[in-house]
Amino acid sequence: MGEGLFWRRDAVTAYAEPYDHLTTDENHQDDFDEAYQDFEGRVRQAAGPSYWGVGNAWGPDKDRIVLRNGLFEITFYEDSYARVHVSLAISSVVEGRPEENFARARLHPCAKAFFDRLEETDPLRVRACAWTSRARAS
């Protein structure tokens, strides 16, 4: 049996397949690294100027925090099927602070806007259940 699809509490997650055009038979690691960097650049562009890069930080579910702003963080989780699960999550920086309630209220509208912009360049899928997915409905 395969692995389940990634899920993070207090987040909205969709996944992309930025390596889909590559095969291990004809490509080198450099091709995968370049595809990852290109995808990260498209995520940065979709996120907008209020987000800044985060060094080597990790979320609670072994997801890598890529970007953060005052309320949210955008994380990547790569699975063994070469999918990159992208989550817009409430930032750990605001947990337990008054801004947390505002972040919770804005999570879904902000995630929709972010994923709508990202989907202009990358087809996205979302969990239907732990093991299956469906195309993201914009």
Descriptive notes:
The protein is an alpha+beta fold. Helices cover 28% and strands 28% of the residues. The protein is built from two helices and seven strands. The strands form two sheets. Strands 1-5-4-3-2 form a five-stranded antiparallel beta sheet. Helix 1 (29-47) packs across helix 2. The N and C termini lie far apart (30 Å). The mean pLDDT is 90.
Please supply descriptive tags for the structure shown above.
single chain; 138 residues; alpha+beta; 5-stranded antiparallel sheet; two-stranded antiparallel ribbon; 2 helices; 7 strands; globular
**Morphology:** globular
Order of helices and strands: EHEEEEHEE
Helical region count?
2
Distance between the termini: 30 Å
Strand content: 25-35%
Let me know the largest β-sheet: 5 strands, antiparallel
- Oligomer state equals single chain
The percent of residues in helical segments reads: 25-40%
Quick one: how many beta strands? 7
- The assigned structural class equals alpha+beta
Can you list the strand order of the major beta sheet? Answer: 1-5-4-3-2
Task: Tell me the Rg in angstroms.
Answer: 15 Å
Question: Mean pLDDT score, rounded?
Answer: 90
Unreliable spans are none
